[in-house]
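User: For a reading group we're discussing how well predicted structures match intuition. Take Tripartite tricarboxylate transporter substrate binding protein. Before you show the prediction, I'll give you the sequence so everyone sees exactly what went in.
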Amino acid sequence: MNMKCRRILGMAMATVLALTCVTGCSTAPKEYPSEDITILIPRGAGGGTDTSARGLIEFAKDKLPKGVQFLPTNKPEGSGVACMIEGANADPDGYTLTMLIVEAAMLPHVGRMDATVEDFKGICAPIADPAALIVPANAPYNTLEKFIEYAKEHPGEIQVANPGIGGIMHMAAVNVEETCDVEFVHVPYPDGTGACIAALVGGHVDATFGTPGTALSQVEAGTLKILGVMDSTRCELFPDVPTFKEAIGLDFEMRAWAVLSAPKDIPDDVYEKLVTIFKETMEDPAYQEYTMKQGIVPSTIVGEEADQMMKADNEVYAELMQLVADQMD
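Assistant: Thanks. Here is the predicted 3D structure of Tripartite tricarboxylate transporter substrate binding protein, as structure tokens, for the group to look at:
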């Protein structure tokens, strides 16, 4: 082979190698995460779900690569149903996560939501608090027992706010009606628990059910009071407030959780990276101190435990939701 042929052959091989390198480099998968991560929040600003979501990602942001950030997006319309459906249908690539709320384990059982918890994989639960009965500080009852007595004497007069018909807090009120033989007027505020608390403080309603921490600042300010919590034990934030079982013998536990979740087909390696990020975040003493100040009892429910919690509740509510099915027709 003469020198000219060798030169041409060498140039051809170099070109092939260069193209191979360029092609290989351009198609090599990027390490997750390499772009911003959207967090869908199915509640409005100011409520427990929004506060827990934003606090969680604020403390987790330093665990992301430089240039990557979390993008929280509130979509409370329609009690958050459309938001959760959007999250279920998102690409399972880890770049769209949803702060799934307990209603995702409830509404599908009465035909009010086309997605279910089975369409998601839970990553962590920054909040899993019991329902509590909250009333104005100047209400004419200071105990849960007196509240029930008043409700019996004034059927259909007490207006109870809730974040959405068929949701966990509406269902808590319905269970009190069913168990104690009383009648409330149910007033929905689709923007979330924060809107319910605002309505209560403003005198537009007489009571609401919410997690204890959602009323922490108002209780401390002396404008609201909590009469009881629906749990087996008293709330760490309000140790002087009795459980419903202690006060009136109602042995019923109801908890409102929010589980940061991904579409069910998320790759295992991406899922594990997210679990690691949020496990470290939730174990951070600074984060736990923050949640207590926000009125949220610190949670360490992460990974498969979070996923199993919401799916176990899904089975429970398959039966319990029939209590409110008639009110949703």
